[in-house]
Amino acid sequence: MIDTQDFVAARRLIRRYANLTPICTSSSLDAICKAEIVWKCESFQKVGAFKFRGAINAVFSLPKEEAARGVATHSSGNHAQAVALAAKMAGIPAHIVMPENAPPVKVAAVKGYGGKVRFCPPTLEAREAGQKKVIEETGATFIHPSENLRVITGQGTALLELLEQAPELEAVLVPVGGGGLASGSARAAALFHPGLKVYGVEPEQADDAWRSLTTGKLVRPEHPDTIADGLRTALGPNTFSILSQHLAGIVTVSEQAILDALRLIWERMKLVVEPSAAVPLAAFLENKVPELTGKRVGIILSGGNVSFPEWS
């Protein structure tokens, strides 16, 4: 299990390479949500997403001989970019398996960071099979997008930073895909801020985490099909275990609510974020978290890697 010293070490390492992302507020969205919300803008992180935190923590923690063989991962985009950039900064190769339907802007970014991209059909099984083949061929070390404990620890530093910037928060909402950000945040809160409640929010059309946590049994996804492409991935044993222990609750939201939330963030806050980042706001729009009415709430805007033509 991840302990306090793991987070302390991750904070120290990540400070050397990552951006200290800003927070912001919006009185108009506070009125709509009936809560005081502080937004942690991980869309301004390197690679445009919180994923850089976990990737840099995992890649730079590898023993020298292991790192020399390179790293590999599978991802629809943000983790792929993060691993590619972290590997470039470390001076080692990065092999990235991406689904054929990954957003072109994310594919281009991975290649721009020097990542060697291989495409696969858009299923978790295909991604895992492609990853296995790459590792057999190259000897690279697999950096799992969410199950790697150093990745989880790195993602949790976003919440620790947020609480340094806004220590009065009573709850935090995070999007859930593979669960790295959610489990890192929930574990960090349990260790450093035990009174803070961390909630997960997931698309209805990619609800394996909700089904897993409500049944108490790890459930595989069934053809996730959501505009929030970063949340089409699934929980694994590590994230499921951490979330089962520490998450205050998880809710699901509709595709229309995600689009409505995305539009509000773009138009009211003037922030360009991707649909995955809008999912927590969608929970307020659909009144899925009524217990947070009147509370001081943090929302982690997970990423901003989107190109406008996708929504035109």
UniProtKB/TrEMBL annotation:
This is Pyridoxal-5'-phosphate-dependent protein beta subunit. Its cofactor is Mg(2+); Ca(2+); Mn(2+); pyridoxal 5'-phosphate. GO terms for biological process: D-serine biosynthetic process. Keywords: Lyase, Magnesium, Pyridoxal phosphate. InterPro entries: Ser/Thr_deHydtase_PyrdxlP-BS, TrpB-like_PALP, TrpB-like_PALP_sf. PANTHER family: SERINE / THREONINE RACEMASE FAMILY MEMBER, SERINE RACEMASE. It comes from Sediminispirochaeta smaragdinae (strain DSM 11293 / JCM 15392 / SEBR 4228) (Spirochaeta smaragdinae). Pfam families: PALP (PF00291). Gene3D superfamilies: 3.40.50.1100. Belongs to the serine/threonine dehydratase family. Residues 20-303 form the Tryptophan synthase beta chain-like PALP domain. One of its GO terms (molecular function) is serine racemase activity.
